Amino acid sequence: MSARRGRGLGPVDASPPPPVEQRCAALGDAIAVARRHLGGRDGGLLDEATAVVDRSRERLGLGTHHTVVVLAGPTGAGKSTLYNWLCGAELSQTGVRRPTTGETHGCSWGEAGALLDWLRIRRRHEVAEADERLDGLVLLDLPDFDSTVAAHRDEVDRLVELADLFVWVVDPRKYADESFHHNYVAPLAAYGHLMRFVLTKRDLLGEEEARSCAADLRRRLVDDGIEAPEVLPVSVTSGLGLEDVIGEIRAVVAERAAMVARVEADLAAAARRLDPGEEAADRKAGRDERGPGALPERAAADLVAAVAEAVGVDAAAEVAAAQYRREANLATGWPPTRWIRRWRRAPIAAMSKPSASSVAEAKVDQALRAAADAASVGIDDAWRGSIRERCVGRRAELLASLEGVLGQSARVGARPAWWAAGAAVQGAALVCAAVGLVWLLIAAVGGGFLHLDTDPLLPRWRGAPIPTWLLAAGVALGLATAAVCAGVARAVGGGRRRRALALMRERVAGVVVSDIVAPLDAMAADRRELRRLLAVARGGS
Amino acid sequence: MSSRASLTELRSLLDEVAFPLDLAGTVDGSTVRRELIGQLDDYVLPRLARLDAPLLAVFGGSTGAGKSTLVNSLVGHTVTAPGVLRPTTRRPVLVCHADDTAWFVDGEILGDLPRYHRAPSADPASGSRSDQASGSTSGQRSPDASGVEVVAVATLPRGLAVLDAPDIDSVETANHELAAQLLGAADLWVFVTTAARYADAVPWEYLARAEQRSVALGVIVNRIPPGSEDEIAAHLTDMLDRRGLRPERLFTIAEGPLAEGRIPAVDDVRAWLTGLALDRPERDRLVRQTLAGVLQSVPARVDRVADEVQAQASASGALASFARARYEGALDAVEGELRSGELLRGEVLDHWREIVGTGEMMSRLQRGIGRARDRLAATFSGRPLPEVAVAGQLEANLEVLVARAADRASLEVVEGWSTMAGGAQALGVSARGLERSSDALGPAVKTTVNEWQDAVMRLVREQAGSKVTVARTLSVGLNGVGVALMVAVFSATGGITGGEAAVAGGTAAVSQTLLTAVFGEQALRDLVKQSRDDLRRRLYVAFTPEVERFDALLAGMPSAGLAPELRRVAGVVADEAGSDPGESGR
Do A358 and B401 count as a contact with CB atoms less than 8 A apart? Predict the structure, then answer.
């Protein structure tokens, strides 16, 4: 991927455009990339483009020797008359009945069987004493496209896709027909450089009329989107202008470039239709170098924060702290009362799983939707759909990954050393208090029941009996230790909460990046690749 | 006169027709409607009013067929300007006898088309009258090209008008519409074509229309290579025959040099037309044939319009109900999520425990002192009372669920509409904003949920009545009871059975005990149901503006009864036409 990227984003130098085979392959690759992400969202565009690639490969496979020139035009304009003249034989039926030519007739200068097979032309003729300068020419006399016979139009539409050079034949009374301009010339304007226009029946007009008529046709062709159209007035009956027509055809045939130009124009047109075309939107959105479709940094941070909030990171951190406090208190609390806490439910047991809550689900959904919106600013609808799918459609996986992350962090782990110390102090205090208590009880039993002298049993220190001191000190120490430990547990728990929060945020961020951001980045990279491939297919660098 | 009345009714019904959606047949339907309206205004209504008005023969056909030259040759004046640059005639020219000009300049025939009276001696609109070759582009494109020029000539008899219509097939699409309108107003179509053009597809579409309407038809094939007249005439007659067209006459004109810009051999055409004007019975027959034909064609054409009205109505209905169903689905989804009790998890539950305790033992321990302690704690710590916190969290969670459901619904509607008939076009470019809820929904849901909570509290206050004391002894207070009821609403069982104890960790059971103690079992069941229904109803109201965003895209639909009404009136028109097309005009 990185090697490709290097090529795609490198400086645009003035190197010659890539050869047509490479452009064809690039379009094929581009279709594969787009299909991977768009699925069925392309509205048939990918299938059309695939057809173009297939057709181009077939045509290129047939070699560059031949040039397919079609004579096309409305009924009665004189296509067949011109065709017969060019072929030097009465090959195509002419007549007053309209429409005349029904099946396409093909005439080749030199052997062209394979090509004519590919063109599916059955009525063929090979010129016997061929003009060398026309060697490789395959001339087709198309049916009309404006008569009542719909099958003729279908045949024209089929062959218009396969022609290398279009010679449109119109006459002074038909040159402004809507069917010619709106149905053929304007939609095919991208192939304008492969079009020549023959204005027949020159003999019907005077000098001035012919000139203004040709000028008017030229003007209309420019309106259709043809740059500098070439209009050749001819008269087949008087032979006027016919040499110009054959000269044009000769020049194109000799160059052997029309076929490649046609294929290139096909590839370019298909590539343009596939191009998401969002350079301008990129600049407007101020996107980073990852390009459209990638999640902007800020939106990614928002997504992490929203997902963390949704799955209850705060509550989980609080649970971690509470669990720590609980266990610390159970370990270091005042032994006579700390057992009561065991009756209470452990915070960790009360914690609910994030994925089990539809509220969490809904929050994550909304966050993912917002992220998808942020990633698809200025992107066309098909890709928007894919990006949304990539985000919102992965909610379940995201939540499943997050669940594992959150459960662990609430556990206390190894028991800290100070709990043991606290517990030891509590034990000592308990022993101390117990010794004092037992001592006092013995004294009480000895003095009260056995009527012994208690003084030897109760040695005094600073005015109070030592066992009393022991009992008091034991209890006081126990309570004080419990209080101190509780304070420490609260403080450490607070720290734990903060650490758990940071840790979980980090883990959530990790999951979000691997489950959402990275796939979006990969998709954006594919889009960059797609654009690069389409640029190659269009003939850019 | 009844025929005229029903036609007028049909005319005003057609005005009500609108096609806001872009369906498969919409272009077709609106073309039929436009042409029908035009024909009623330009031709049927005026012609019914005055059957004695002059016969209007419209010369129509392809560009470059030589219509203008032919008309000039027929009337013997250069009234209209032919030229080599296509298309030529832009402003149609109507030629008639001076006594008849009033019919056409001021009369109702040709409806709203502007009419200009031009003196016969004046030049035609284009400056290239006598000199065909130099038809300058600027002259061809006169700015006031709309409207019909009326020219009086002495060479035409009274009772006949000839109209040179624009072409029907050039790149200038405005010409086609005008030509169709003028042909719709004709008593007689004179179809002009050439040897090179007679098999063109476009003219035959018009001829098919002529066949549908049994319009009186004349055909002229111009520019035939000399010697081929019979072959072409035979072929064309055959083609016409196969399509069920029987022209009054078919003329062939051989291609040849013009004499002073006129075709020499048009005498038989002129004789035919003049004859029609002078022969009253024949003229009347033609007028009535065309009128009856047009009237007979009305039901089929109105049917086409009515079909489209129906298609529009049902497509629009399908779209609207799809949108509504998606939002209904969103409500169902919210309700399902509520019933699963999931709103009660997490923090809500923790807080709820603070109210009712963690178990029976603790609750007994805390009874009485719990509340006082909470209140004290709330006062000092600034934290809200537990039941307020629970209510707040329920509200927040509910809002999230509702927002998600609404967002999903709007996306589903957009995705669904894109695949439905007329949907993509109805969405148009505004679809971007419709994929998610409007900005107003968030605050609206917040308000709705707050109001619902208030309503639950009110309900509790009303229902509990004297039982408040019971609640007091349970140490949770009236608000606590309200929250308990909400908790019950948000649990699967509605707080009736104890089966949900597992989900809510015993809490639901506790709240159930509490509620049952306060209200009694039956009343509790009713209360829970009432609160649930109330919530759904309120959310429905909150969703209404969201649905209306989509409804607004379908605005402008004609009323549902329009299609049958159109068909009914069209039937009346056809019946009356069948009985006697001309009687009403007398």
Answer: yes
**Closest Cβ opposite residue B337 in set A77, A209, A358:** A358
Partners of B346 on chain A (C-beta within 8 Å) are 312, 315, 352, 357, 359
ipTM reported for the complex surpasses 0.85: no
Give the integer Cα–Cα distance in Å for A283 and A280: 5
Distance between CA atoms of residues A138 and B449, nearest Å = 77
Q: How many CB pairs under 8 A join A and B?
A: 154
Eight-class DSSP state of B260: T
Of B169, B204, B361, which has the smallest distance from its Cβ to A178's Cβ?
B169
Least confident of A191-200, A323-332, B131-140: B131-140
* CATH code at A65-255: 3.40.50.300
Domains in chain B: ranges and CATH = 53-278 (3.40.50.300), 309-557 (no CATH)
Residues of B with CB below 8 A from A205's CB?
84
Residue B513 pLDDT class (50, 70, 90 cuts): low
Which residues are bridge partners to A138 per DSSP?
A: A68, A108
CB–CB of A68/A115 below 8 Å?
A: yes
- CB-based contact (8 Å) between B349 and chain A? yes
- Between CA B459 and CA B530 the distance in angstroms is 9
Query: In chain B, what is the straight-line distance between the N-terminal and C-terminal CA atoms, in Å?
Result: 9
DSSP H helical segments within B193-265, as ranges? 201-212, 229-242
pTM: 0.75
Mutate to test the interface with B, among A152, A169, A178, A217 (most CBs of B within 10 A): A178
Q: Do A177 and B134 touch (CB under 8 A)?
A: no
Residue range B344-390, pLDDT digits in tens: 655 555 555 555 544 433 444 444 444 555 555 555 555 555 666 67
**Chain B residues 456-515 within an 8 A CB cutoff of chain A:** 505
Q: Determine the Cα–Cα distance for residues A371 and A385; give it in Å rounded to an integer.
A: 13
Q: Which residues of A touch B85 (CB under 8 A)?
A: 212-213, 216
Edge-first strand listing for the sheet containing A105-108: A123-126, A105-108, A137-141, A67-72, A165-170, A195-199, A231-233
Interface membership of B196 toward A (CB under 8 Å):
yes
Q: For residue range B192-232, what is the model confidence (pLDDT) as tens digits?
A: 998 888 888 888 988 988 888 888 899 999 888 888 888 88
Give the whole-angstrom CA distance, residue B7 versus residue B94.
27
CA distance A78 to chain B (A): 9
How far apart, in whole angstroms, are the C-alpha atoms of residue A58 and residue A496? 69
Give the integer Cα–Cα distance in Å for B481 and B489: 12
What burial class does residue A239 get, using C-beta atoms within 10 Å of its C-beta: 0-12 exposed, 13-18 middle, 19+ buried? exposed
pLDDT of residue A5: 36
Residue B413: other Cβ atoms inside 10 A? 25
Task: Give the pLDDT band (50/70/90) at residue B75.
Answer: confident
Alpha helices in B2-124 (DSSP H): 2-16, 26-39, 45-49, 67-75, 101-105
Q: How near does any CA of chain B get to the CA of A180, in Å?
A: 9
Domain boundaries, given as residue ranges, for chain A = 65-255, 297-538
Q: Which residues contact A384 (CB under 8 A, 6 or more apart)?
A: A372, A376
Whole-angstrom Cα distance, residue B288 to residue A137? 61
Q: Quick check: B452 pLDDT over 50?
A: yes
Question: Are A148 and B201 a contacting pair at CB < 8 A?
Answer: yes
User: Is A245 a residue whose pLDDT tops 80?
Assistant: yes
Segment among A96-105, A514-523, B468-477, B498-507 with least mean pLDDT: B498-507
**Structure tokens belonging to residue B563:** 């299609």
Q: Does B201 contact A373 at a Cβ distance shorter than 8 Å?
A: no
Do β-strands B160-167 and B55-61 pair in parallel, antiparallel, or remain unpaired? parallel
